[in-house]
Design a protein that fits this description.
526 residues; alpha+beta; Porin; two-stranded antiparallel sheet; globular; disordered N terminus
């Protein structure tokens, strides 16, 4: 055997498997995904080299409904007005504002969507999407998000600035597309596939998400259906939801016991399907400065990294991230006190276990979550900290108790850093007793352009009793990665990392104390 399949459960649940299953289909899908480039590039939005497809602050919400003729004439008169040559050049570089029509034929109010500003040099009205919070501290794109880190909610007071991808564009002129757009529902997805090669021949473990060594894998083929509540307005209750499912090798890390978990826990399949998210949101604007209530299966809130590939800075994940809680099923409230403080309180049935599975197998452990987010007055720093999972702490299915915090600092508009640390433990672990672990990871990021950035990741992990990774050990990992987006839909992330174990051999089937690993993945969004 030349591969070690790792699940996120304690060492006694780790199992060996034949890594050859699915190789051919992974390679073919990798090649097929590369071919999608030509299809996406044919889109007219990318045919014009003067259009920056990764611009995050467009002048207006685009809508292909019939444009109000009066406003169209206004735009034409502005563009045709005599101005100084320099001002005219500036004016031509700004997209004209488009005004959409509501179903009843009336104009959408510009103030509902924009913070207005009049450019006196050009005579053109420009604006950004309206916000109730300070401007995003970093650019997105190229980074996955420009907002301050907070899980379990869309940022209260910030508009939805996510892009529209190929699937919604294809549906645009259909009856289904009209229904989705009218109700602010988005359908989108991605294909993620990657390859790695390193000094370990048998296994990359304890590197997670690409533990198989020297091969190409299909990581995720995902589909999302989503409606984000409007948390900018403060007049009425709004709602949202998200359903996300993916097929790929990454299901081995995200599996929740009781939801198709036999694929992994009983049959040990390398590839499988996981409905990783299904939750609803209710936004209540009149509680404090706004409260969002999330219920269902949602992502564990505190991490810098995420389970869904487009939301990550790099292809591989930190050692820290590989063994902490991934998803929870329950209810979580996020309350905005003011521009600087958000408070989160929640209760779930435990880490990575469905409510019905926990109840049926007597594994249900009511688990509390309490997190606080603070943002500095200068909008340069944020601390997001608290307890992600707390109950009696007795050994159970991934029943780790987690105390965690992340500090983010923006040095300049192009450089920022994030540092996350946690302490976790379980009690009464068979054969071990009290089993603690602690870890710290730092991400430092350098934006090169609106399509490129470099990531440096350094971390230290101490598995004090060996309960999480299977051997008593302290380890470090150092990685550097580069992300490039060819356009809004297609990106690659090559990287190199070096991992070192300080106490016992851990790498290449527990034969080595270190390993070098080179990886690259391809993301195609649709």
């Amino acid at each position: 055997m030349n591969g070690f399949i790792v699940s996120r459960q304690p060492w006694r649940d780790f199992i060996f498997a034949n890594p050859d299953i699915g190789k051919r289909i992974s390679i073919r899908l990798f090649v097929a995904a590369m071919g999608i480039n030509s299809l996406v590039l044919s889109n007219q939005a990318f045919a014009n080299p003067e259009i920056d497809t990764l611009e995050t602050t467009r002048p207006i919400v685009q809508n292909n409904n019939q444009i109000n003729q009066d406003q169209l004439n206004l735009n034409q008169s502005i563009n045709n007005a005599p101005v100084a040559s320099m001002a005219k050049t500036q004016a031509e570089s700004i997209e004209p504002i488009e005004f959409s029509l509501e179903e009843d034929g009336t104009n959408t109010k510009l103030s509902d969507y924009l913070s207005e500003s009049q450019n006196t040099d050009t005579g053109v009205i420009t604006g950004q999407l309206k916000r109730r919070v300070p401007a995003p501290p970093i650019d997105s794109p190229p980074f996955p998000s420009g907002e301050w880190q907070i899980g379990g909610t869309s940022p209260i007071g910030a508009p939805d600035t996510s892009s529209t991808y190929a699937l919604m564009k294809v549906l645009h002129h259909t009856e289904l597309g009209s229904f989705l757009e009218k109700n602010r529902i988005k359908v989108y997805g991605w294909v993620n596939t990657g390859a790695n090669y390193g000094t370990s021949r048998l296994s990359n473990y304890p590197v997670t998400y690409n533990s198989f060594s020297r091969r190409v894998d299909l990581d995720q083929v995902a589909l999302n259906i989503e409606r984000i509540p409007d948390t900018v307005q403060t007049e009425h209750v709004d709602w949202g939801f998200r359903v996300t499912g993916f097929y790929g090798i990454d299901y081995r890390l995200t599996t929740m016991k009781g939801i198709f978990s036999d694929q992994l826990l009983t049959k040990n399949r390398q590839y499988g399907f996981d409905p990783v998210l299904f939750y609803g949101d209710i936004y209540i604007p009149k509680i404090a400065k706004g409260m969002n209530i999330r219920f269902g299966r949602y992502l564990s809130v505190p991490d810098i990294e995420a389970q869904l590939c487009p939301d990550n800075y790099m292809y591989t994940h930190s050692l820290l991230y590989g063994v902490d809680p991934y998803t929870q099923m329950g209810i979580l409230t996020t309350t905005k006190l003011n521009d600087r403080w958000n408070v989160q309180l929640g209760i779930s049935g435990g880490n990575d276990i469905a409510l019905w599975a926990g109840n049926r197998e007597n594994l249900l452990k009511p688990t509390g979550t309490a997190m606080v987010q603070w943002i500095s007055k200068r909008n340069k720093d944020s601390i997001y900290a608290g307890v992600n999972a707390i109950n009696d702490g007795k050994y159970g299915y991934n029943n780790v108790q987690q105390f965690v915090g992340t500090w983010t600092h923006v040095f300049t508009p192009k450089i920022h850093t994030k540092t996350e640390a946690y302490y976790m433990y379980q009690r009464q672990v068979p054969g071990i007793g009290f089993a603690p672990e602690w870890a710290i990871v730092n991400y430092t990021l350098f934006q090169l352009s609106k399509k490129d950035y470099i990531t440096i990741r350094n971390e230290y992990y101490d598995d004090i009793k060996g309960q999480r990774y299977g051997v008593k050990n302290s380890m470090s990992s150092n990685a550097i990665g580069y992300t490039h987006w060819f356009n809004q839909s297609i990106g690659i992330r090559p990287e190199f990392r070096y991992d070192q174990a300080y106490n016992n051999p851990t790498f290449d089937h527990f034969k080595k104390k270190n390993q070098f690993l080179g990886s690259v993945d391809l993301i195609v969004r649709f």
